Amino acid sequence: MQRSPLFPQMILEGPVMTSVKTADFSIFSRRESEARSYCRSFETTFVSASGSMMTDANGRRYIDFLSGCLSLNYGHNDPDMKQALVDHITADGVAHGLDMYTDTKARFLETFERLILAPRGMDHRVMMTGPTGTNAVEAAIKLARKVTGRRNVIAFTNGFHGMTLGALACTGNAGKRDGAGGAALSDVTRMPYEGALGDDVDTLAMLEAMLDNPSSGIDAPAAFILEPVQGEGGLNAASGNWMRGIERIARKHGALLIVDDIQAGCGRTGTFFSFEDMGITPDLIPMAKSLSGFGLPFAALLIRPERDIWKPAEHNGTFRGNTHAFVTARVAIEKFWSDNSFAETLSAKAAMLEEGLRTVASLVEGAELKGRGLMQGVDVRSGDLAAEICARAFDKGLIIETSGAYDEVVKVLAPLTTSDEVMRHGLNILLDATREVVTAKPAMAAE
Ligand SMILES: Cc1ncc(COP(=O)(O)O)c(C=O)c1O
Fold it and tell me: What kind and span of H or E run contains 285?
């Protein structure tokens, strides 16, 4: 494959691996399941990572605008989290403690209460679920059904909530649903997300009319589940008005409000929770991805106290509460959320991102900006075009992916800690890649 030149020296500063460890992928094609996915888009062997950069076995460095699908909001190998984790391991700190009381869990919970929940007036309890986001979603759906004694869950077009059967039933994507092999993905009613039927369709009014009508055929819902910004579904960002409307309709119909902040949370939209400026109080909030701060598996469900009707061990699991993740999550919160200084950096960074993406969008006819905060992208109106742009960008040293129903949105998910210089450089690569691809396909170019 023809590669463009490596980055300018300023981006390359720091140690660069020069030894070629392996360029042979045969072990992966021979032994790794066909289910593998991201590696097919980024065909190289990565050996190290730091901050916003990843390095492959050939010593080539890449800017990471994917951030482990947003499990690395604070970048790769944050030195303070790494040191705390190394110290914990070196001191024979508990590595696995089931859900027993440990000093690390206590310190994480105290920090989360003091710096995240209490300042936001949130009285939620923290349930340690299995370590992936989908397990926190399963717990939320089960709990909502237990609390209300109802089965039906209202989920939204383009929503993505995970790959286990309950969460997958709430997920819209046809390709992902096919993975269920025909198993029933039931007890969910799908409704249009804000804007899904065009700007002139009032989806709140439609939803309310359907639920108010006792003959609409929709069973009384246990819960509404939704993402404030649909990460996998095309970076559709709901307005505060719409989110408040959903909360009002949920309350009116005795349903719980589940706000899935697995992808949009932990600072991604500019505040710790993606909904915190919207004036809503979700009953249940699944969290995962960047909660550990370090890319370690760790998920939790935040629960309003009056909804916390679990009996002990009713949602059990061997890996509930990852002790190593408690260590890094505590450091992440102390380091980035002790005061407003980190959050204040995010709006300037989001503005820079938006400006860069506007230039990218201007190259493609009909292209449109999507998302908010540091979760933005460009809808280029074609999955093939988006894939070509991402592939070209990767050749130039940028890791970037697509989202949306047709994979038509090129999405930038850079670590929140990305320096302005690296952000600018990554955006320039994206711009060059887009220009090259549309120049080769003149019909796609904007006038
Ligand atoms: C909004 C949302 N919910 C749930 C999940 C599932 O999380 P996990 O992949 O950790 O199971 C994801 C993953 O992308 C997500 O984006």
Answer: strand 284-287
Ligand 1: lining residues by beta carbon, under 6 Å? 69, 132-134, 137, 160-162, 227, 231-232, 260, 262-263, 288
- The architecture CATH gives domain 80-337: 3-Layer(aba) Sandwich (3.40)
The token pair at 326 is 């408690």
Neighbour-count burial for 371-400, b at 16+ CB within 10 Å, e otherwise? bbbbbbbbbbbbeebbbbbbbbbbebbbbb
**194-247: per-residue pLDDT in tens?**
999 999 999 999 999 999 999 999 999 999 999 999 999 999 999 999 999 999
Return the beta strands (E) in 164-237 as ranges. 188-191, 221-226, 229-230, 236-237
- The H or E element containing residue 68 is helix 67-70
Contact 265, 248 (CB under 8 A): no
Model confidence over 381-400: pLDDT tens digits?
999 999 999 999 999 999 99
For 122-148, what is the mean pLDDT? Answer: 98
User: Which atom of ligand 1 is least distant from the CA of 288?
Assistant: 10
Phi, psi of 85 (to 5 degrees): -70, -45
CB 182 within 8 A of CB 173: no
pLDDT higher at 367 or 22: 367
| Site to substitute for ligand 1 among 263, 285, 322, most atoms within 8 A of C-beta | 263
**How many angstroms does the Cα of residue 92 sit away from the middle of ligand 1?**
32
- This prediction's pTM: 0.95
Q: How many angstroms does the Cα of residue 212 sit away from the middle of ligand 1?
A: 31
Q: Take atom 8 of ligand 1 and give the residue whose Cα is closest.
A: 133
